[in-house]
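Hi there. Long-time user, first ticket. I'm pasting a complex I've been working with (about 627 residues overall). I'd like to know whether the download I got is complete or cut off, because the file seemed smaller than I expected. Thanks.
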Amino acid sequence: MRLPLRRLAIYGVAFLFAIVVNFFVPRLMPGSPVDGMIAQLGPRATPAAIEAIKARFGAVEQPLWEQFADYLKGLATLDLGVSVKYYPQTVVEVLGRSAGWTAFLVITAITFSLCIGTSLGALAAWRRGGRFDSFVSPFSIMMIAVPPVVIAVATLFTFGVALRWFPVGYAYNPNLDPGLSFTFFGSVFLHAIMPVLTLSPYLIGEFQTTMRTSMISVLGEDYVTMGRAKGLSETAVMFGYAARNAMLPVLTNLALMLGAVFGGSIVTEIVFNYPGLGLTLYTASVARDYPVIQGQLLLMTLATLGANLLVDLIYGIVDPRIGEART
Amino acid sequence: MNSGVKLLLRQKKAVIGLVIVVALCLMALFAPILAPNDPAARVGRSHQPPSISHVMGTTKMGRDVFSQFVWGARSSLAVGFATGIFITVLGTLIGLAGGYFGGRTDNILDLLTNAVLVIPNIPLLILLASFAGTVGPIAIMAIIALTSWPWGARMTRSQTLALRNREFVIAARMVGEPNWRIVFVEILPNLLPLIALNLVGSIIYAIVAQTTLEYLGFGDPLNVTWGTMLYNAQNSSAIIVGAWWDIAMPCAGIVLVGLGLSLLNFTFDEIANPQLRSGPALRRWLRLNRQRARELEAAR
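Hi, the file is complete. Here it is re-exported in full:
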């Protein structure tokens, strides 16, 4: 299984871009973020802490390229600096606490939406122009246009506050001890319902639209006609012949959308007070905890690149033509 | 262009979308007439439900939600549209340049496009916004535009690549037309449906991103927009105390713009990709097809 060099180059440039942004933005901004952070530390501002922050944000007498080299060295050893808000803790510790919850939320939402969105897209393309299509397809496009903030706030109000169906806030009941028990998993499940439902409409809309478009072009292929000519049932042709191949562009789209999904999860976690990366980012941005914000960008970029790489690999396995065509 | 407008008006969805968007723009334009009061003025008690004197109730600070809604449309729509245009121009230019010139230019631009495409936008926006502190509408515009042009650039590039070796372009090159003229006069008009699609999509994205940033508190709190209305509503815990009108109005505004624009987008998509069309003609064809199938079935 070989990956085209070009894809790797793209990921390399993207990661480099994130690093360069992280390194230069604080050094280019008017006013010094360092003073703000030292003020933020308050009584905890030991000389060592101040020194560490200064080195990281360029308030030291050192040529720029040496600072950059130091920065890269730090990254290579997974040293993302120390958090300003939770001072003695490092950024890696702070992010590590919350990354799992975000991964859980995002993966659940993607799986859920993938099932629903692709089915809706396949059905809409199958009966193109029918009543189902002319209702579902514009509705999907509309779903893409609604910001997650709006859906989150509306869901929270309707199901959390007015109807009181689901708990508002946290990932599980804080009175429970995390452990391998049914009550704990039940609690986690119950707390995840609203955030997942908030993330889903956008994803379902995207998947439905992509699936419909790609399904329509696949339905024109000869092998679909062949399947019909063989007298296979409608469902066999739809799922066994057409939908399988129409899934490929959906996969590509999924990898590209991951950045947007992270954006959605940030907002969702803030609204539902869900202890994931988004909430950490929000508290960090309120506290002007720059190291955490930077670590966040790197982590999310890495996650997106990883997912893209994974999709590239899967793509090559699912569609053998691609491996040859791309090189 | 005239035929394009006609094509648009023949679609029911596009007309509905256009009506919604135009109505909201008119509301924003005539804000001083519709809501003569200062949206930041305290006019009543805190969190009053909708009544005759305050059609949409009041906020925690006792400000009139209706006035804020009308005036907020101004900033939200203006920033959304301006950013959308900015994104489209940037994306189209980069896509055109890469697709037309090819070679090393294309290699570099395509690499850049794909790289910016995979970087998660919102975390990047938050990073930039938090280092810049509280940012005004112009800065928000610039930040959003600089991080979100690649979608359009990619679409434009692939379309330009397809057009580059068509006969009329080759003919123009043979005649000795300068490059800029070939790009802007020969190729660009063929990309119009795509650019329209890109523009509407970018405006939608810009409004979503702007709302998100402002909701997170990066906007200028003194500037009334739908995003800052949501931010203020969140901060005054309007949801928990049940003041639904405080959040429902900005939400309704954003959803309406989204609805109108996406209906338009759906139509542009069908114009740009005729394969996707599902208008009355296709429905008639499907009906006839079914009818014929039934007749064949009956005859057997």
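A couple of notes from our side: DSSP finds 14 helices and no strands in chain B. The radius of gyration of chain B is 24 Å.
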